[in-house]
Amino acid sequence: MRRQLFGSFVFLLAAFVPTFILTSCSGLSSRNQAGSGSSKTVPALAWPTPSPVTNPTPLSSTQLDATANVPGTFVYTPAAGSVLPAGTQTLTVTFTPTDTGDYHTAAATVSIVVNPAKPDAYVYVSTKPDNNGNVEIYAYSAASDGTLTAVVGSPFSASTGVQATNGKYLFGSNGVDIYSFSVASDGTFQQVASINAQQFNSQSTNGSYCGNPGSPFLDRTGTNLYDLDYDGNVCANNQYQSFSVDSSIGNLTYLGSTSAATPIFDVPLSFSGNNQYAYGGSCYHWYQEIFGFVRNSDGTLAALSFDPIVSAPMPASNAGQIYCPYLAAADSANHVAVPVQALDNATLLPVGPMQLATYTSDASGNLTTSSTYSNMPAMSVTNSSNNYPTAISMSPSNQLLAIGGSAGLQVFHFNGANPIMPYTNVLTTDEVDSLFWDNDNHLYALAQSGAKLFVFTITPTSQNQASGSPYTLTNPGSLVVLPE
Q: pLDDT tens-digit profile of 302-331?
């Protein structure tokens, strides 16, 4: 009769306990009489499988929630507050009953899935084409401290490098086609579309198409993609092409080119905070030009003022000098930073270092400035052989402005309509060609000639180079950062 009772008890216990491992100090046994001491009962433990967590989530009562059918004490391993490494991990509980005379100590285990920490950004560095036109794209995930980890499968072969992102797709041009790549949640990507952008250019007398569509950039919403089309008009003048981005599949649809065409248009544009106006700066053949475009309702661009070009006013200069602008970066509150170089008005030779002017855009897109030679900070990232900066980038907070040039990288305090103020010294003396910020105060800087990728953590009050930086690369060509 005792054997039958024992078998029935085991059957009932197996039906009650969910999927976990249950052990005791002396094994399973039936209970004859309460308090007899000759045999003890194993408490019934219940512990549902915890839902997956994402690093760095500490363990808590949400995961450590085993229960028993009798009073007692639970001890968990790992303990509450522990942060587990990514992967499938094992949790263990030891249960000590209050009534140790009638009940055994029991234990149970469950598995929990720990997902890797969500990166602050994905970072993509394209190589320059080799002799066969092949390109590789290195992909990294950026941790909260700025360290980079290669995405599984990196480097990736691609038809072209990548140069711009709208947060969902990557875009790149080989001078003829513009390619779209969709990005997966793990940072991997695949080509989903392409369009021959050169076919919309003028044609030469032999029937070949003019122009080299390149330097793609987006408006603030990522709805429209634009490119600087070199020699696209009558095989001589530069224009800006406009495309709409299909948010579902990444296809690009050609919308048109600017009717304004001139060699002066030689830089990508930066959109104001209201996404209505876009600005650039150039000093082609010493013409002082800060030019602007209005973004029409259909996404196309129209020059704010052209033929003749009417530029924004230059900062007040020293006697006998003029200023030449190059590049522009707008913040989200309709202010624009413009690097300017003082030139001798007679010889047009540089006089002193480049400086940083600030402009304010009004409701009609017109720019005004209170910058003068006396209140603009000097830059130290250009040298006598290359006086103009190579890259400029406004931080998402609008408080910091990064400038790259032939002599390195600097960051300045940006103050809206008020003068820009110095902040960091030169952070690297390598020539910096591309700059991107993510949304967690990380600044990424690509040095092509030095074959290095730098990562800095910079806030308005602190600065440091991230662990592992700089990263050595092979033949790097372009940089894109997709903030998470």
A: 998 744 445 688 999 999 999 999 999 999
Whether residue 50 sits in one domain with residue 170: no
pLDDT at residue number 282: 92
Rounded CA-CA distance 287/289 in Å is 6
| The domain boundary residue, chosen from 61, 83, 115 | 115
Number of domain units in the chain? 2
Q: Are residues 111 and 141 in the same domain?
A: no
> What is the number of helices (H) and of strands (E) in the chain?
1, 38
Tokens 């020699």 belong to residue: 231
Question: At 6, which helix (H) or strand (E)?
Answer: helix 2-16
Are 128 and 109 members of one domain?
no
0.70 surpassed by pTM: yes
For residue 429, give the 3-state DSSP assignment.
Answer: coil
Which residue's entry shows tokens 């915890």?
A: 50
Q: Which of 93, 115, 137 is the last residue of a domain?
A: 115
What's the CATH number where 49 sits? 2.60.40
Place of tokens 């209140």: 375
CB distance 190 to 180 below 8 Å: no
DSSP letter (8 states) at residue 316: B
Shared domain check, 140 and 111:
no
53, 74 in Cβ contact below 8 A?
A: no
Same domain, 167 and 84: no
Let me know whether 183 and 238 are in one domain. yes
Beta strands in 2-103 (DSSP E): 21-24, 45-46, 53-54, 67-68, 72-77, 87-97
What are the backbone angles phi and psi of residue 13, rounded to the nearest 5°? -65, -40
Are the C-beta atoms of residues 445 and 457 closer than 8 Å to each other? no
Domain hosting residue 226, numbered range: 121-483
pLDDT-above-90 percentage for the chain: 76
Angle at 122 between CA 159 and CA 166, to 5 degrees: 70
pLDDT tens figures, 144-156 = 999 999 999 999 9
Whether residues 34 and 175 share a domain: the answer is no
Query: What is the distance between the alpha carbons of residues 217 and 205, in angstroms, rounded to a whole number?
Result: 31
- The C-alpha atoms of residue 437 and residue 167 are separated, in whole angstroms, by 13
